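Peptidase M48 Ste24p structure dump, as promised
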Amino acid sequence: MNRLFLSCGLFALVMACGSESGSKTKAIPLATSISQKDKEAGAKAHPELLQEFGGAYQGPQSAYVVNVGRKIASQSSLSSVQSDFTVTLLNSSVNNAFAIPGGYVYITRQLMALCNDEAEMAGVLGHEVGHVAAMHSQRRQKAATRNAIGGTLLQILTQATLGSSGLGGLLQQAVGTGAQLLTLKFSRSQEYEADDLGIRYLAKGGYDPKALSSMLASLAAQSALDARLAGQTKDMPEWASTHPDPASRVQRALQRARDTGSTNTLRNRDAFLSAINGVIYGDDPKQGIINGSQFIHPDIKIAFIAPAGFTMMNGTQAVSVSGSGGQAQFSGGPYSGNLDSYVTSVFRAFAKNESFTPPSIQHGSVGGMNTAYTTVQANGQSGPVDVTVIAYELSANQAFYFITMTAAGQGFGPFAGMTQSFRRISAQEAAAVKPRRLAVVSVKAGDTLATLSGRMAYDDYKMERFLTLNALTASSQLTPGQKVKLVTY
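C-alpha cells r here:
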C-alpha cells in the first residue's frame, strides 16, 4: 500500500511556522485537525498496511513506541490529544517510518534499532507526522498518479497489458520495496519541510531538537553500508534511498535545530536502550530469513540460493532478488492442485486480466517436486524483456513460484541456478534457524571496538555494522560503563 494513494481529505489551512520565536523556518500551510473522512480512510488502510509490513510487533517495545509516538504527534497542528493517534511498531526488517492521514503513525523495528536514543526516534516519527500535517500526500497526488513506482521499476506491455498495476505492482510489494520507496513521492522541499516540522515538534515536546540531525547522520551511514553490502561501489543513489540524500540534510537539520533557540537536551538514551533490548533484528523466522545468499523459511521448510552478485530483500508478501542481470520475486498463493492453472493465475494476477492465457506451459521436476514454467516476451521501458514464471508443487494444496525478468531471449537467464536450487529442508535444519536480536551491553575495561564488533552475529562487515548501529567511527573512544548495541543470536 502506497501512502500517496490514500485519501488525504479536506484540510483547513493556516499559515504557520514562521512566527515562532527564533525560527527561520518559512511558512508552511498546515492542517489544523484530523477530519472524519481521514479517520475513516486511515482506519480502512491500517489493516492493509499491517499485512504488508509484517503486522504489529508483538513485544514489550511496542507500548514504549506508542507512548513516544503519541507524545511527539500531539505536538503537531493535527491534534493535541494523544489518543487521536494510532502508533504502531511494525514487525519489519526494512528501515522505514511513515504516517498516513487519520492519525496513523508507523515505524519499523529495524529503524527503531538504528536510533540511539528516544529523542532520535521521536524525531523520525515527528518528521513523518510533519508530512501529514503539511498535506504532502495531497500536494503530490497528481505527481504520484503520473509517476507510479511500479511504472518506474517496470512498464510491461503485452496483449494482456502487464503494466504498472500488474507485474510492476507486484515488484514494488516484494520485501517492502514499495515501503522503502514511499518517500520518493515527496520532493526535496517537502522533505525539508517535514524535517523542519519534526525539529519543531522535538523542541515543543521537551526533547533536544538536534536529535533529528544525528538520526539523519545514522541513516546516511546505513545507506552507505547497505550499498557496500549490495556490492555497489558508490553510496546508494538519492532516488533509491528511503529518505532522499540524508547526508546532505544533516547539517541543515542541525542549523534548524539551533534556529529554534531551544535549550532542551533531553535524549532519554538509557530508557530507550533499556526498552529496545532484545528486539528482533533483521528477518523474523516466521517470515523466512536471508543468510548470505540463501533464503530459508523454517515454517514452510523450504530454501533456495540467489545468484552470485545479486541482492535479496525479504518482505511479508515476497522475496525480491535483483542485480544487473535482471529481477526476480519468490512468492506463493492459493493452489488448487493444478500447476498449469497456477502458472496461468500468476500471470493473470500480474496482468490484471482474467482472460490472459500464457504460451505453452512446460513441465519438469526439481528436488522431487513437480514444476511448471513458461516465458512471456514483452516490451519493457528499455526494450524487449522475458518474463518467466516457474511454479513448484510442494503438496496437493501448496505451491510456490518464482517470476523473473531478464533481457529478451534469456528466459531464466542468470536465475537458472536459483530456480534449480529450490528445495525442501529437514525438520532439523528448520529448528536450527534462530532470529538475530538486539543486545544492549555495557562496555567493560579492556573492551575495544574490535572485540565488541567481533561479537556481532554476522560473517562479514562486523566492524562496519557495529559502528553504524551505534553511530560510532573508527576513531571513537569507548569508556567502561558506556552502553552499546550488538546483534546476537
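DSSP finds 18 helices and 19 strands in the chain.
lmk if u need the other ones
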